[in-house]
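Chain A, query sequence.
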Amino acid sequence: MSSVSFSAGLRAMSVPPFHAMTMSKRATDRAALGLNTMFLQVGQPSTGAPLGARRAVIDALEADRPLGYTNSPGLPALIDRIVRHYDDRYDVSIDAESVTIVAGASAGFTLAFLAAFDPGDRVGVLEPGYPCYRNALIALGMEPVPIPIGPETNWSPTRERLDEVGPLQGLVIASPSNPTGTVLDTTTIDDLVAYCDTRAIQLISDEIYHGITYGLPASTVVGRSPHPVVVNSFSKYYSMTGWRLGWMVLPAHLRDTVDRLQQNLYICAPHVSQIAGLAAFDCTDELDAHVTRYARNRDVLIDGLSRSGIVDIARADGAFYVYADVSHLTHDSMNLCHRWLDELGVAVTPGLDFDLDRGHRYVRFSYAGSLEHIEQACDSLATWNP
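Chain A, predicted structure.
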């Protein structure tokens, strides 16, 4: 019998868990036992792909089309439609060569990080912010550099905060953001673009929640400079999380590198998903109705949380999250989230996912799901005795 032992790689083992998905598994396991469970832990729309997208896929399958590999950058028709999307929505002209279709925004960030950075490079990530930026950078041997933001900066990055962390090779921003729902105004975006351009910092803009705002629409980084990378997705506004489809708008200096990486790592995004994505662009009436529903869910959630004394929250101007300070209840948000799930059946995400330093004081509520779950959760929290 061999005495040789095996283990995972040290760098891989250093990657923290994505707590939202851990809570999601606990919640689904609980529901499978027949226990009442309210799902407010992940950004998962309760609606499926729009009807037009589903019909397009059915038509493709019934036509017995060989849905095999596409060109590595994606279906030309979908790329052309994305080019038109930027012209229609943002009044910005881009060329088709700048667009690459990817297997979800997650693949887009992996490709962007690998193309733009080397192991050891310092890449700024906002805290609170989406944890998978940080965790993917760790997995790839790069150094995520936390940049703390909060109410004192309107949950937005500032030049002063960037200067405090020292030299950076990259910066990741998001608008609307996860978990705070912050929408960056055009002045802030222009300032961040100029800051990065003058310092040769590769800016990567996460725009996957575009289309889901409750005031002014979100502004794109595209067209403000030739240098940033933009990552977008069909998961959120287009309600197609499980289809694993997104796109990148790339600067000229990264296009060839991303194409070669895509060929080797993913070959191409799923053909069937690209067919659905193409049709989804023509389903705006249905999709805008979802945004109206999210706005209603947001109002009900914020009002319901106030009955529990949870009133210190980030401005939820976009996306579908409420990021709340619960320090009056606990200084261990992880424990609080597990207690709420076990005692009340309410599944939410601990702030430690989004902020390693201050996240023990916060939790994130998602209102992407059903209004019934939100109302039940608020009723349960209002009567909960800590």
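The domain at 11-49+285-382 is CATH 3.40.640.10 (Aspartate Aminotransferase; domain 2). The chain has 13 helices and twelve strands.
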